[in-house]
UniProtKB/TrEMBL annotation:
HAMAP family: eIF3a (MF_03000). GO terms for cellular component: eukaryotic 43S preinitiation complex; eukaryotic 48S preinitiation complex; eukaryotic translation initiation factor 3 complex, eIF3e; eukaryotic translation initiation factor 3 complex, eIF3m; multi-eIF complex. Residues 93-120, 525-599, 631-665 form a coiled coil. It comes from the Eukaryota. This is Eukaryotic translation initiation factor 3 subunit A. It is found in: Cytoplasm. SMART domains: PINT. Residues 281-478 form the PCI domain. Gene3D superfamilies: 1.25.40.860, UVR domain (4.10.860.10). Keywords: Coiled coil, Cytoplasm, Initiation factor, Protein biosynthesis, RNA-binding. Residues 842-861 have a biased composition (Low complexity). Belongs to the eIF-3 subunit A family. Component of the eukaryotic translation initiation factor 3 (eIF-3) complex.
Amino acid sequence: MATFVKPENALKRAEELVNVGQKQAALQALHDLITSKRYKAWQKTLERIMFKYVELCVDMRKGRFAKDGLIQYRITCQQVNVSSLEEVIKYFMQLATEKAEQARTQAQALEEALDVEDLEVDKRPEDLMLSYVSGEKGKDRSDRELVTPWFKFLWETYRTVLEILRNNSKLESLYAMTAHRAFQFCKQYKRTTEFRRLCEIIRNHLANLNKYKDQRDRPDLTAPESLQLYLDTRIEQLKIATDLELWQEAFRSVEDIHGLMNLVKKSPKTPLMVVYYAKLTDLIASSVLLAALSVTPYDQKHGASHLELENEKERNLRMASLINFTLDPKGESREMLSRSSLLSELNNKGVMTCVSQEVKDIYNILEHEFFPLDLASRVQPLLAKIAKLGGKPSSASSVPEVQLSKYVPALEKLTTLRVLQQVSRVYQSITIGTLSKMIPFFDFSLVEKLSVDAAKYNFLSMKVDHLKGAVLFGNVNVESDVLTDHLAVLADSLNKARNLIYLPMKKQSKLGEKHGLAETVDKEHKRLLARKSIIEKRKEEHERQMLEMEREEESKRLKLQKVTEEAEQKRLAEEYTRRQEQRIRREIEERELQEAQALLFETQKGAKKKGKKPLLDGEKVTKQTLIELALSEQLKERQELEKKLQKLGKTMDYMERAKREEEAQLIEQAFQQHLVEEKIFHENEQLKAIELSRQHHAGDLQEKNRLARMMDDKVIFQQRIVNCRETEYNRLKKEREDTINQLIALRKHERETKRKMLFYLKSEEERLTRLREEEEARKHEEEERRKKEEAERKAKLDAIAERQRQREREAEEKERLRRDALLRRPTEALSRSIDPASGPHTADPVPVAAAAAAPTSDSAARGTRDKRQLPPSLIDGEDRMIVLPNPVHVSSSGVCPVRCEA
């Protein structure tokens, strides 16, 4: 595989190979480039390469190469530039379509050319021989050789494109466009088989879309755009199916549309539903009464099996669901849709009042009247009239043109059955000739066929005797049937008689004779079932193991085979590429040598004509030498030609200068002559204009004199009109001024009212604002005053508390000092009593001192409580304080000594 540094090189190489006729090598080179992992980023050059690639694929009908290349290109540009992929695919389909159309045109032209060679001969001898050998006509053979391959390739193209674009939200519109073009291809060339396959492909794509819901870039069917595209595709599919008269495929298309609408739970657009129901009329029925009458009057499910009845029931339910007709799925199948129920419903809904008189007469004759002898003769002219009826229901209806003639064959069969049914009620036998005259629609063989079907489904009971030429009606038994049932009936009767004479005795069960036999049988049965289950499990396990071993061996063998094949393919590809390059190189060299020889031959041929000596006559030269000689000779010829052209140009310049000098005088004379002629022509035209103006003036004067007598009347009429208009103008002017004055006064009053209202509102707003501001200021002042008083009161309380704490500290300190002094006094008295040198001792006894020291704490506490209970005036007045530090001593006389300090 050749590698290229740039994609442009691969494109250039491919063009060179195409120029030398090597399209396969060019296609392979582009295929290697596209599938290479080296060029995964999209660029504009890749688009041009894809255009060339699909062009080569179409020319060589390489559908597989085209599919691989488009898949790789989709991977490359799907996330970057989807429009490029659309352009490539459109170009691909356009080329395939043009080639197919070109082949068809070529086949037609070839057939026409072959047909007009000899007008006296019907067929050529070779055409006769080919037709006898192959069994084909000339056109069929040419189509098979020319048209069929291109049609097959075009069909493969559509399949490939649909496979590439399926289930991708970014390529929905292109997918729908491709499907529409494929439908048109099937319609244009009547390809019914391909149309069925195409419908199945699109159906599988939708099924896979609903199955794999976690797929990347999956279309969302709930989106209006996606739903519209999918419904448009199905509607187009239904149209083509009805045009091709593929009713089974049309029915499946209707099921697809109905399933899609039920899947998304959204109502489609009105135009789509119009087309949908219009095509349903083609598929089901458009004339309800005639369609109901055309149904056979007997039940064709007579004697059918249960499975057939269930299938018929399911089909009826599906049909009813498609046309939005409500049915009970639990009801009997024969009661769902029958001829009698349809006709009764048509009567109940008043359809009989809307049909034509001919249809109404046919309905009455076939369903309600009894004319066994002339029933067909009464119906025949009515059927002839119905066959001519039809047309479009209305200009606004989307239902296509309705032709009632398609119901005539079914009504003729119904008439035949009615004739046979009514005749069977009147006659027991009738001749075949008479019966044939009574039924003019069909030959008696067809009548016999219809009667056989009716007898099969138990609608008629008749027998045709061709030996006697008669038809027998009634319960006619066949002799073989009588003999077959006779013995069975006799045996059944004898058995019943025996049972009446000898009553059958009930036999006792053998299970009661042997105790435990039922239980033993049950256990044995369960054991056998368990053994069978174990054997089956072991067998399945063994088979599974063997299958796993075979799969592993097969996988190993396939891997080895794949590796070997890949190596062999790689070697063969390299060998093929090398040989192709050598062959192409050799062909290019040979071609260049041939071109050089041809160029040298032309040069020598020109030299011989001119009488020059041939170049290297009889010598052996190389390619380079030939090219150099040819180029040098061409250069000499070019130089000689340039010299000749220069000489010829100089000669032509001299000739042109001489011609102009000679013709200058002639041109001047012609110009002067032209001036004289123009002056004469101008003077004549002026005279004509003056005369014409004079004539017009005279005519105008005559017209003025003729109209002068009406001038007074004109002035009077004008004055009257002017006066009326002036009066009317003054009246309207006064009315307008009055209206304007009223409007001005009204607007002035409104402005004054509005101004007063605005002034009142503004004053009220200012008053309310002032009151609100005053209230806020008052509240603010009160808040400030309250805060200030609170702060002053708090400061006074803090000062009082601080002084109180200071006094308490001082009192405690004094109490402590006094207590220390009292404690030192007994010690000193004791030392003085011991010491003889000391002075006279005190009169205070020790017990008294001890007693005085004992109540110290209680006295301090009482002093503190008494001090706290003093009024503030005694505490704060002139910084004076009354202190009672000494304890109170109660004497025997009841006197409490107190010491006061200021």
